[in-house]
Amino acid sequence: NGGGQLTPLGTVLSQLPVDVNIGKILTMGCLFNLVDEVVTLAAALSIQSPILRVDEGSSSVQLRRELVSDDGDCFTVMNIFDEWIKIKSGRTESSKRWCSRLGFEEQRLYEMTKLKRQFSELLQDAGLIDRDSMPRPRFTAREKEQRRVVRSLMKDRERRKRRRVLNTEGISAAASMDDNDNDGASASVGEVDLQSLDFALSNDLMAMSKKSRRDLSRVDLDTLKLIIASGFYPNVAIPDEGNDRRNAQEAVFHSQAVRCFQPHASSVFSSAAIMGGEVAVFSTLLDTDAPYFTNAIRMPLLPCSLLCGRRIDIDQECRFALVDGWLKIEFLGDLEARSSLLYIAVELRCLLNTSLQHRLSASGGSNACTSNSNLLHANEQQCKLKLPPMLLKAREYHMSSNSTQAQSVEELNAAQGQLAVRLAAFLETHSHGCNATAIKASDALWSLTHPALALSTGKCVSADQCTKAMHNTAKLVQQITEGKLHFPDALKSASSSIGFSGLSVTPYITFGSLLSTIPSAASFSTHMQKPHTCNMCGHRSLMDLNELIQHEAQCLSRS
């Protein structure tokens, strides 16, 4: 947390020998009792895609179309895995033949099975789920001996595998194994499929078949998507404004770290467009000849930003918000509707955090670590800004939720029962209602550190103070442009120079710390003059950056 203490979630994640993002997804899945679904999705996100590239007009594309999920890549892989398990248990068709017919790589599905078992065992060992909820298969002495023999044969076959060698008479007879055999243990024609045999001996196929017949509600799907989004945030890609004139394969996206990239050809979003008001939350960004994102899910932009954003700066009218210094959102509706939306987001985040801490504490983790409830900056007592009533209510709700005595265990359990329903309703209800654009780090820095922010609070600043603050921001912008400084460090340095950084609603929402419009200085440089009309005094002339700073400083000091 902000105080440098390890939170209960951090304590649990430190005990799970998996990637932090995957660990967070697994842990949150236990909170909502969607363990098997989350374990399956986590396994799908941890392997290479089993979907092979085939010609668009081939029969494989048509056959697997019903397995493709519009919600995202990992949901598609989960559908493929579930159908594969049904084929395995039904025994009406060889699973290997089925994968070949639909264009799937079966070895990846075997890998998913092993990962699912490993993830389940990790959650059981961490005390997050009961051992009875996902019992480990028990084997007789005979079955154990059969597994030992099969795996011995698989290792022997792997050792005998040789690379094909071309000579003057064709392919060498010594190369008896098929190079396309990815696992090194599947059978050639006429041989026993040892991989499939090992799978049957190592898993309770009947239990897996029952779990594969899922009947997920819309609430379950929305909850799963939010769990994955919270795990992989801030890997968020927003569609370019010109995508409505492009097809899905040519769509362009922007993220906090990279601008102008596309979905990978293996992603469902290479054919299913992400519209305005939506974002793609992805796990991997491939930088080959061009950047591509993979393992993505579809999320509504506004709820995803408000529920997962780590720093949300808001202007004084609650009309604009800047999320994590790059995503600028314009809220629609009146002031009461905009502030009410922010209150709901704060309430849901508090409920989610409290429920998670309660679950982790109940499972034997460390005691809940409360975040700093003292949200007052040193200069807020003298500030003339006033929080809108709903934001003041949100602030008070957040501070009360930090107290361990604020809610009883019964109240926490009751709130947890409705949490998934409320989160899903928030995602569905507010899937639209905003405009968003990705802005440059330089524009964000000017919008968050301009001296006009200090003046709006009623604070008196001199021309020298304004000049010094703006020159400091210009210097930091130059360092960001040259790659010498990261945005968070620049923002921390620049904020201290204007003496005011807004009113804290929560540790992640700050009111009055953002200018509604990007300052003119963001588009000026020191080596070229541009025509400029001052919006304070109406003066119009040619100016470079230094001249603009001097002029604005004089106008601001007079204001």
Low-confidence stretches are 171-191, 370-374
- What strand order characterises the main sheet? 11-10-9-8-13-12
DSSP helical segment count: 20
What share of the residues does DSSP label as strand, in percent?
Answer: 5-15%
Mean pLDDT: 82
What can you see in these coordinates?
By secondary structure, the protein is an alpha+beta fold. Helix content is 47%, strand content 12%. The strands form four sheets. Strands 11-10-9-8-13-12 form a six-stranded mixed β-sheet. Strands 3-4-5-7-6 form a five-stranded mixed β-barrel. It has a two-stranded antiparallel sheet with strand order 1-2. A hairpin with a 3-residue loop joins strand 9 (320-323) and strand 10 (327-331). The longest helix is centred in the middle third of the chain and has 28 residues, at 335-362.
List keywords for this structure.
559 residues, 15 strands, 20 helices, 12% strand, elongated, alpha+beta
Summarize the structure.
The protein has 559 residues and is α+β, with helices and mostly antiparallel strands. It has 20 helices and 15 strands. It is elongated.
SSE arrangement:
Blueprint: H1 8-15, H2 20-31, H3 35-45, H4 59-63, H5 73-90, H6 95-102, H7 106-125, H8 141-160, E1 166-167, E2 170-171, H9 194-202, H10 205-212, H11 218-232, E3 236-239, E4 253-254, E5 259-263, E6 278-287, E7 291-300, H12 301-308, E8 312-314, E9 320-323, E10 327-331, H13 335-362, H14 389-401, H15 409-429, E11 434-438, H16 441-449, H17 452-455, H18 463-481, H19 487-498, E12 503-506, E13 509-511, E14 530-533, E15 540-543, H20 545-558
Helix pairs in contact: 1-2, 2-3, 2-11, 3-5, 3-7, 5-10, 8-9, 11-15, 13-14, 13-15, 16-18, 16-19, 18-19, 18-20
